[in-house]
Amino acid sequence: MLGDLRSRSALQARRRAIVKTLCYRLIMVLITVTVAWAVVGDIGDAVNIGLVANVVKTGTYYFYERTWDRISWGVPASTSE
Fold first, then answer.
1. Closest Cα to residue 28, out of 48, 11, 53?
2. Which of 4, 14, 29, 60 is most buried, most CB within 10 Å of its CB?
3. Rounded (5°) CA angle 35-41-47
4. What digits encode the pLDDT tens for the residues 13-65?
5. Per the confidence metrics, is the pTM higher than 0.70?
6. Secondary structure, 3-state, 13-75
């Protein structure tokens, strides 16, 4: 498996960024709903809080990732063979 890994450019494929974003946000929805439920004591309100907060955060995270993909600072230059 490690032999299949190739060095890739700093720019991630758009699909990869979307999948990473959605997986991360799913985990964050579960955490937010759990914390909100503990605070407000109502599962319906907790789900609403979790969904609204995380829809906003999902978009924010996606654009944050895409912005950093365009910044070359700290990324070693690729060497041609």
1. 53
2. 29
3. 60
4. 788 888 888 898 889 889 999 999 999 999 999 999 999 998 888 889 889 99
5. no
6. CHHHHHHHHHHHHHHHHHHHHHHHHHHHCCHHHHHHHHHHHHHHHHHHHHHHHHHHHCCCCCC
